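Structure, all two chains, one model.
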Amino acid sequence: MWNRRKEDVPPNTRPSSAPPSPSELAREGIPMSTLPARGFDQLDASSRGTAAIGKSVVIKGNIFSREDLIVDGEIEGAIEMLEHRLTVGPNGTLKATVKAREIIVVGTIHGNVEATDKIEIRKEAKLVGDIKTQRIVIEDGAYFKGSIDIIRPEVTKPVAKAAAATGAGPTINVPQPQTLKL
Amino acid sequence: MRSTLRNIFLGTATEPAPLVGVRGVSRSSSASGAAVKMAREDRCIDSKCVEQFLASIRGQGSLNILDLTGLCQANVDVISGLGHRIHSDDFLRMLDDCFGSPGDFYENQADHERLDKFVGQCLAYDDWMFDGALIWDSLEYLSPDLLEMTVNHLFGLLKPSSYLLATFHTEANNGMVPSYTYRMEGTRSLRLSPKGERQAGKILQNRDIERLFQRFNSVKFFLTRDNLREVIVRR
């Protein structure tokens, strides 16, 4: 009687290269602001200069960001910002796969999430999807359905460490000539 | 797959239970009074069940462990600390969403439309997906039919020889039992964080629990003095 698990994230039906429909254009008419975010003071103390997507903004498509991002609107698609922090505000709703260095969730995410450093799930958050991360911080009261996979950081090889300590730059491995024994 | 190795410790539920390391709990003369008082404050108990469960999954490669208490930092830390993947499902919240008001919570569990919604959303995993399951007190809030169906479903989700951990209250106060968030602390301690009281479906005795898990390989009971019976079941 129990059904099999369905995909949490609906597949993106329209390829990102396809032109948007007029209705989508109308919905995406509000530009993304890069002004300092306002609205949720508890989150943005250190977020001046980060990009922000306001709560009346709906985006369908993929976002690649080279700066921190606060989302308080709706996004359907994918978000990738491997070097930066993503904050999903209280009004933020993502139906997306997310990859970021650090993720703070106060709103809702439906989709798989990968944080290369850390994810914080606040008590008001709702997250349905699988999480991959190095570190996780959970507040009581958050709703989560999915799996959590803690990735152990790779131990750097002592040789590489020694090279870094001496200030050596990138090294090129040149294959040594070998003597063939016949 | 009838049970062949059913190990029952401590006999019947009416026998006086041994003290299993209750800390930080003020005692009351009456059992129900103690239950009500305990329900208001966090407390930590030594748990043989947790110890055995964790021993069963220690030292193995990346396993899949199901936890039905909802998202909990302590359990994530313990399970992921052993190198395993934890699958979290907030069973009680799902029950409330599907069978809560309007109407009676337990009568609603016979409603086909609500039942369809429940089985479509909750525990929707592949067969033999899990190497262990932390069920806690989730089974206490099910009507008899849904209870049997859920346990049979869990049997299908678990791999052979894996373990399931559940808790059952030994008594109720006017049908009400304290509900907890169950947090594992270390390898043999369990912290019970109260979440208020809930109407229990039925207070199950040892025989009922044996019957409930009759498809499983073995059932072990551990009684604590705080009206809680811990059960570890081997698939």
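Chain A has one domain: 22-164.
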